Amino acid sequence: MSAFMPELITEVGGGIASLIINRPEKRNALSWDVLQQMREKVRGFRTDDSVRVIVLSGSGDKAFCAGADLGGMRSEASQAELHGARGELAQLFNELWSVGKPTVAKVRGFCLAGGMGVALSCDLVLAADDAVFGTPEISVGLWPYMITVPLCRSMPPKKALELMMTGRRIDAEEADRIGMLTRVVPSGELDSAVDEIAAGLASAPPSVMQLGRDSFYDVWDMSSTEALRLLHPMLTVGTGLEDAAEGIAAFMEKREPNWSGR
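The structure corresponding to this sequence follows.
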């Protein structure tokens, strides 16, 4: 990739930030640099008021992301340094979960290994009917350790284990059937479907979206008793927001709300 063709493209407009992995010749495989750039961008979006929704995709129509660039990730660095670098993927998952804004994966073609983990770490996953998912690490003597978490949060755990143990690839229809996806659309309609859902998310009250989304991830692994103990006071906090008052007033006055983000 030349200096004039960045490996991660960022586009922002209309409240929507698009992060596009731009390594089509590598099926958009993840390098250390791309992972680090993605983390930095997502972290920056958290405090950027011009961004209300984040969309992740891959360049071209062949792959969302085919996983780690195994050739490019070989290094003469020490094992300790390599161990730290491998943690970039886990940290990207955490950045996506804690960004405070809706995240959408737009998937065409191959979505494999770490790329599948990145997609499933997004709140919503829209896939073209030509998408292919899988965790093929076992076939090269590896195990998809860190993506265990987003996989088990996106499908029945035993199904995730079967995919990891066998390396079997599945099409979009099966991925949707086992609960991984938000929606499957014909490949020619993917852009418009993502644009529509992203615009809808961007039009929602940002303060309400952040508190609600954060609380969803906060209670994910809690018992019902613990979760309700947290969610009860959050309801009081949420109803005290300016955006909540504006939404109710707009409804009563039969007009469009004007969100302040507070």
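The chain is about 45% helix and 15% strand.
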